[in-house]
Amino acid sequence: MQKIRKAVFPVAGLGTRFLPATKASPKEMLPVVDKPLIQYAVEEALDAGIEQMIFITSSSKRSIADHFDRNPVLEQELEQRGKFDLLDMARHTIPEGVSCIYIRQPEPLGLGHAVLCARPAVGDEPFAVILADDLIDGGEQSCLGQMVDLYAKHEASILAIQEVAEEETSKYGIIDPQTLYERVHQLRNIVEKPTPLEAPSCLAVVGRYLLTPNIFDYLEKIPKGAGGELQLTDAIARQLKDHPVLAQEFQGKRYDCGSKLGYLEATVEYALQHQNLREAFKKYLNSLLHEQKI
């Protein structure tokens, strides 16, 4: 079995739902407590054993590369002040031995096109795709780590899924599942953003994928879909006719940080888990409740 060594991060989007905050700063750099969304995504990849991070970027996303690069001026300042904990944190946003590649997406032509842009860097290997605005707290094991374990058993493309309310199916790719065993299904079909009446189930694909390299062949052949974009869902729908594609109901909690409400939920709950903040923050929230401000 080929090891999953590479992860693709499509980060070229404009983040219009968070304007004006994202006018000059990428949405992936929005902080949840004290780390940007993209760092949570990279840490999840590291937890799953990923060795190479491939960022599909645009001209407005330079701060992402800066975040994962060394900053000698900052490091010297922290060292002189004796702030060695912060110095270690600044130096190791990416551990030694892990590499970063940055590829420009020339036009915003959709998630499928962003993944296709990664082909020269991925080559003929299975790989992960992580959407940073889906923040997933997997608990003891990350969502991607769970998927890597499943890949070791089946060596097939795997999609992370969760059950959504019937009225929300039009926001997601929805699978038609054939259950293999608990929390694992084989896809019979996948439908992009169906109405509740058209949806084959309420199992929705979220921002984690493990894909076999033949997905690139399907991405090159599919026509442009909704909005004139290449849809990854369309390529997967063709792939599953020739190869098994699995879906895994991951253990953990997902925060849709592409929405303002989901982002606020993540911020509050991660603050309540933060070792240095949780007690003071809990006290603050309780005071708001006591004053009936919330």
From TrEMBL:
The keyword Nucleotidyltransferase applies. Keywords: Nucleotidyltransferase, Transferase. Pfam families: NTP_transferase (PF00483). The keyword Transcription does not apply. One of its GO terms (biological process) is UDP-alpha-D-glucose metabolic process. CDD domains: UGPase_prokaryotic. InterPro entries: GalU_uridylyltTrfase_bac/arc (IPR005771), NTP_transferase_dom (IPR005835), Nucleotide-diphossugar_trans (IPR029044). It catalyses: alpha-D-glucose 1-phosphate + UTP + H(+) = UDP-alpha-D-glucose + diphosphate. GO terms for molecular function: UTP:glucose-1-phosphate uridylyltransferase activity. Its EC number is 2.7.7.9. Belongs to the UDPGP type 2 family. May play a role in stationary phase survival. NCBIfam families: galU. This is UTP--glucose-1-phosphate uridylyltransferase. It comes from Candidatus Venteria ishoeyi.
